[in-house]
Amino acid sequence: MSVHEQYAEDLALYALDALKSDERASLEKHLEECASCRRELEQLRGDAALLALTTSGPKPPARAKSRLMDAIAKEPKLQPARARAPLWGVLGWIATAAMIVVASALWWWNSVLSFNVQILSTQLEREKAQSEQARRVAEILDAPDAASYVVMPVSMKAMPPSGKAIYSRDRRGLIFIASNLNPIPAQKAYELWLIPMQGAPIPAGMFKPDAHGGAMVMNPPLPAGVEAKAFAITIEPEQGSVTPTPPIVMMSKGG
User: Fold this and answer.
1) Do 152 and 191 fall into the same domain?
2) pLDDT band, residue 48 (cuts 50/70/90)
C-alpha cells in the first residue's frame, strides 16, 4: 500500500471534520510533507461543499458527489449507538445507592451506640468497684472481731504523726489511716507491718504521705487467720521489703 492510499480514507473524514484527534494529528503531519494529498484534500473539501448545496442550490456535478460518496464508503462502518438503559435498570441503580446510604447510616449509628455502651460499662465497673470497696469497709468496721490499733511514733514530738489500724482476722480485712506524717526521702516509702502473735512481721502495704501528711492503706493482701499483736511502720525502698528495716518509726500498743 502506497503512502497516499494509506491516507486516502482519512482524507475523506478530515474533509468532513470527522477524523479522530490522534489520526487527525498523524494526517496533518503527512499533509505538511505531501503536496499530492493536500491537492486531494482540497478537491474533497470542494466536493463536500457542492454536496451541501443540493438541498438549496443547483445540483452539484455528479462526479463530485460520486467521489465523496466513494471515499466515505471506504470508511469502516460506525458501531450503532448503544440503546438507552431501560427504566428498570436506572431504578435498580437508584435502589442500590439508597441501600448504600442506609447501610452507611446504620453503621455510623451502631458505632455511636457501641461507643456509648463502652462508656457506660466503664462507669458501671467503676461504680461497682467503689461500691464493693465501701461494702468491704463497712464489713470490716462491723466485724465482731474488729480491733482498733492506735499507731504512734516511737519518739514523741510536737504535733506527732499518728495512725489508726482497724483489723479483722476472720474477714482478712485491714484499714489504716495516718495523719501528720513526716516527709520521706526520694525513692523511699513507708511500709506498714502486721506483727502476729507468732512468727515474723508480715508486709501490710506501702504508702506515701500527701502534702498534708495524710495517708491510707485499705485491704492489702494478707494471709488468712493471722491474729495481730500489733502494727508497725518503717521506712523502706519504694518497692518494699520482706523484713522491716530498723528503726521502727511508729508502732501500736496492741488491739
Assistant:
1) yes
2) low
